[in-house]
Amino acid sequence: MIKTAKTGPARSHRTRTLSLVLTSALAGSLLSVAAAGPAAAADLSSTFDTVNPGSPAPGWATAGDVTVQNVTGTVDRSLRLRDTSTTAATTARATFGATSSTVVAGFRLRATQSTATIGVHLDSTGGHSVTLALSSTGRLYTYDGATRVDLGAYVPNRWYDIRLVARPGTATADIHIDGERRAAGLDFRTSTTALNSLQAGISVADTGTAHIDDVRTTQESSPAGWPQLGAVTPRSAAQVGTSQLLVGGETLDRDYTDYQAYAPYVGRLGATGIRIQAGWGKTEKTKGVYDWAWLDRIVDDAHSKGVKPWVQLSYGNSVYPDGGGGGLGGHLPASAEALAGWDAWVTATVKRYKGKVSEWEVWNEPNLAGIPVADYTDFFIRTATRVRAEQPKAVVYGQEAGIDVPYAKDFLVDLAAKGKAHLLGGFSYHPYNPNPDDVWTYQQVQKLKDLVDQYAPGAVIRQGENGAPSTPGSFGALGELDWTELSQSKWFLRRVLNDLGRDISTSVFGISDMHYPWGKTNTKGLLQTNTDKSIRYAKHSYYAVQNVASIFDSTVRPLPGYGWKATPDKQLTVQAFAKQGNGRQIVGVWSGAGKPSESTARTTTDLTFTDGNFEDPVYIDVRTGAVNDIPSANWTVKGSTYTFTDIPVYDSPVLIADRSTIRL
Asked: CA 327, 539, 174 angle in degrees (round to 5)?
C-alpha cells in the first residue's frame, strides 16, 4: 500500500510517497484516557524498579487498580493495570509536555490474557493521535486515521518491545515491534500540531491485566521550515544483500549472551555479517566427541536470514592437558595432545560449516594475552593451513587487540619470511577509544594497512570488534566513562561511517549486552538484556545502526579525497560516498571534536562541495532516521560545486544525500 505523504511546500519536480507496511483493516475503538502529569517539555523515563511493590508510580495519574508490581520469576518491576470491572476505567497516564517536535516513545507491553482490549496511546489535548493496541481476539493493531489496521497476532505473558515515532509536523507515525517496522506513514487518528502525553488503559467493557515497563520518550526537532518527508526505511539483511557492515555475536561460546533470545533482531538489523566464536571447549567436552547442536542453530539461523557468520577459531579446551586459556587473555594450547586435538577440531569445524562460512579468524587478541609474536605466527600458520586444506578459497584473518602496529609488523614479517603470507586473507584490529574520530587511530590504521599491503598483498584490514557502553560502570573497555543510550548511538554511528568512508569492513560490538559469570555486565550491546540474558528492548543504537545498514550497502562506495569547505570553519568530519550506477552522492557530516555528548543541540554551517553530484538533495539525521527536504533557498549549484547553507550539524552524523540513494 502506498500513501502520499503530507510534506508541505516542495519543489514542483518532486513526487513524495511513503510506504505503509500493513495487513488487514478492522473496525474498533479504545478507551480514551486524558493527560496529566509533570511539566512541559520533559522526556519520560520510567523503569519502576526503585518503586516499592504495591505502590503507585511517581509521575503517573491513574484510575482503578494500577500499581507497581514485581514481575514473576524475575528481579524486575513493572506498572500493572488490573481491571476486574466491566463498568469502571483502569488507566495510567504521564505527560511530557506539549511539543510539536517528533516524539519517539519506547516501552514494553505485556498482556496476561488475549481476551481484553489494551491500548497505549500518544495523545494531544484533542485525544488519541497514535495507538498501539492488543485486541480481545489476540491481535495487535493500530490505526491509519480512522481505519483500524491489523499488525499480527500476539500471545499472552510475552513482553513486546514497542517503539512509536510520531511526527506532528506531518501528522503521521511509524510503529516498530521487536525491532521491526510494522507500519509507516500512518495518519494520526486525531490530527494535531502538538503531542503531550503517553496513555495506557484497558477497555471499560473488558476485564484483564496488562503490564507496561521501560517507558522512554524523547523529543527530536527538525530543521525549522524544512518539510518532513518521513524516515529511512529499514531493510533486513536479506534485502540489503551485501555490505561491509557486520555485527558482533561474541561470547556465545561461553554463554554470556543467548543467541535464541536475540535471534529475531539479527536479520532485522540489516548488517550482513556476524562475528561468532566457535567454542572448542563448548563443542568438545569429551575428547574426540563433538556436540555441534548449539553452533548449528546459530550458523543455520543467521545464514537463513542473509547474515553470513564470520567464525573465530579461538580459546582453549580444559579437557586436554595444557589445552589453552578458555577466555579473554587466554594462552595458546601447548601440549602435543592439546595441539593434536585443536588440529582435529579445526578441520572438523571447517568441514561442517564450509557451505555457510567462508571467513575464519585465528585466536582472539593474542597480544593482549601476552602471546609472543613468533608463537602466534606459528599457531596462525598451523590453523590457517588446516582451514585452507579443507576450504581452499576460505579467507583467514589474523587478529590483535587495539591497533598494535609493532606486533602486527612482527607477525607479518615473520609470516612472509616463512613463505606463508598467502595464507593471510585479512587482519582485524579492535580500536577502543572515547572519541571515534581520534586522528591517531586512523594514522595507526593507515600504518597497519601499509604493512599488510607490503607483506601480504591482497589481504585486507577489518575493524573486527569495537563498541561503546550505554551505561556508566559497564564492564570492559571504556566502562570507566559516563555513557547513555544517546551517546552510545552517536559513538557507533561515527565509528561506522569513519570506517566505511575509508572502505574498511566494520563490525559493531555487539548485538546484545553481555553477562559475565562474576556478576558484571558489558552494556555495549545494541539490545538491552535482563539478567537471564533475555532481550528487554532495542536501544537507540539499534535503530541508528539499522539506518546505516539500510543506506550503505555494497552499491554505495566511498569517495576518498572529497573536496569540501565549511563556513564558519568548524572541527567537522566529512565522509563522502557515491551510489554506483548514477553516481549520486551521500555526504556525512558531524562534529568530531571529542567524545559524544548528551546533547542533541545543533549549530548551523554552510558547506561547499567542489565535486558534488546531487539532483534532489535531502537532509537525514542518521541517528533518528528522519528525512527532511532541503529547501531550494538553502542550496545552489554552479557546475559541480554545490553550496548548502544553514545546515544543522552536531556530534552525530547527518547526511546530505540525493533522494535517489535512500528508501522512504
From this structure: 145
Strands 359-362 and 308-313: parallel
pLDDT over 60 at 35, yes or no: no
List phi, psi (to 5°) of 367.
Answer: -70, -35
Instruction: Record the cell numbers describing residue 404, joined without a space.
Output: 598494535
CA–CA dist 462, 362 (Å, integer): 14
What is the distance, to the nearest Å, from the Cα of residue 471 to the centroid of all Cα atoms in its chain?
A: 16
For residue 194, give Cα distances in angstroms to 26, 98, 271, 373, 611.
27, 6, 35, 62, 41
Name the maximum alpha-carbon separation found in the chain: 84
Residues 544, 272 contacting (CB under 8 angstroms): no
The reported pLDDT for the residue numbered 521 is 97
Is a pLDDT exceeding 60 seen at residue 26?
no
Number of residues that make up the chain? 664
Write out the H or E segment, with its range, that includes residue 618.
Answer: strand 617-621
Query: Is the four-CA dihedral 539, 540, 541, 543 of positive or negative sign?
Result: positive
- The set of residues, in sequence order, having a beta carbon less than 8 Å from that of 306 and lying 6+ positions away, is 236, 237, 238, 239, 240, 241, 267, 272
Secondary-structure breakdown of the chain: helix, strand, coil percentages, each rounded to the nearest 5: 20, 35, 45
C-alpha 21/C-alpha 44 separation (Å) is 28
The DSSP string of 188-257 is PSS--S-EEEEEEEE-TT--EEEEEEEEEEEEE---TT--EEEEPPP--HHHH---SEEEE-TTGGGTSS
CA separation for the pair 606, 240 (Å, rounded): 33
* pLDDT 10s digits, 167-181: 999 999 999 999 999
Structure confidence by residue, pLDDT tens digits, 475-500: 999 999 999 999 999 999 999 999 99
Q: Are 443 and 486 in contact (CB under 8 A)?
A: no
Beta bridge partners of 635: 644
* This model's pTM is above 0.85: yes
Element (H, E) at 383: helix 373-390
- What is the DSSP-derived secondary structure letter of residue 616? S
